[in-house]
Each structure stands twice: as structure tokens, then as C-alpha cells.
Amino acid sequence: MTKQNILELLNHALELEHAAYAQYLSHAEIVDGINAEPIIARLKEIANDEKGHQDKFRTLIGVLGGIPSMESAPTRAAKTIKQVLELNLADEKTAVDTYRNILNELKKEKGKGYYDHLLEHEIRHILTEEQEHITEIELLLGISGNSY
Ligand SMILES: [Fe+2]
Ligand SMILES: [Fe+2]
């Protein structure tokens, strides 16, 4: 794995975060009904976390001498609260799997440079927050603990 490969993985992650941020905020505007308010609040809170992840990935890419992507991964529209929650749960799982893969790739690089430790630390932190998002969405869907 070269530094260029790592930068590609990080830019892909950044594009996932761009998509997640826009999708959560868009979905927050289509949720309505008697149970809407706590769900809207949760979607906006998660969107804010995704924005923080964008910042972290941009910084990591910059530290490695790369150019942070301005592109976005695809987003998906939803029509009902259930759809909103199910779509975002699936995307959170994709994020967790993607970041686990980056961590596995980085482990193979151990000892090759001091950047690896910073990367590992930051990505593990982001991964933990994505797992929290899964827990929060599972709770709203009434399927706690059943995603994995
Ligand atoms: Fe994220
Ligand atoms: Fe997330």
C-alpha cells in the first residue's frame, strides 16, 4: 500500500461523510407527524457528528499531503420516517465496514511512518461514533442490538 492508496481511501471516506451530512439534513426536513420532533432532533445531531468527521478526514488528508475531495458519494431520498431510519441505518453500516477496512489496511503499514498512529487513532474514534449512530437509529426503529 502506498501513501497514494491511503489518500484514496481517506478521500472516499470524506465523500461518504459529505453524503451522510447532506442526507441527514435533507431527511430531517421531510419527517413529520406526532413523533417527529425527537427524530428530527436526532437526525440533526447525527448530521453534526458527520460534519465533524468531514473536518477530521480533511485534516488527515492534508497532513499526508493530499487534496481533500469536494465530491460526494451518492445520496438517497426517503418518503417516510421508517424509510429515513432504514436508509440511514444501512449507510451507517457501510461507513462502519468502510472504516474497519481502512483500519485493517493501516495495520499492515505499522512501523512505516509516524502518521499511521495518528490515522489509526482518529479513524478508530470516527468508527466509534458511527457505531453510536447505529445504536441510536436502532433504538428509534425498535430493533436495538439487531444490526450486526
Ligand atoms: Fe461519519
Ligand atoms: Fe454516522
> Structural class given helices, strands, pairing?
mainly alpha
Number of domains: 1
What's the average pLDDT? 94
Q: Whole-Å distance between the termini?
A: 29 Å
* Overall body shape: elongated
Q: Main sheet?
A: none
Radius of gyration: 16 Å
So how many helices?
4
Query: What is the name of the CATH superfamily?
Result: Ferritin, core subunit, four-helix bundle
Strand content: under 5%
Helix content: over 70%
Low-confidence segments, given as residue ranges, are: none
Ligands (ions, cofactors included): fe (ii) ion
The CATH architecture is Up-down Bundle
Main CATH class: Mainly Alpha
Question: How would you characterize this protein structure?
Answer:
The protein is mainly α and 148 residues long. 75% of the residues lie in helices and 0% in strands. The protein is built from four helices and no strands. Helix 1 (3-30) runs antiparallel to helix 2 and helix 2 packs antiparallel against helix 4. The longest helix has 28 residues, at 3-30. The two termini are 29 Å apart. The mean pLDDT is 94. Bound molecules: fe (ii) ion (FE2) (2 copies).
Secondary-structure blueprint:
Elements: H1 3-30, H2 36-63, H3 81-108, H4 115-141
The chain binds fe (ii) ion (FE2) (2 copies).
The site of one fe (ii) ion (FE2) has 7 residues, from helix 2, helix 3 and helix 4.
Summarize the structure.
The protein is mainly alpha-helical and 148 residues long.
List keywords for this structure.
single chain; 148 residues; mainly alpha; Ferritin; 4 helices; 75% helix; binds fe (ii) ion
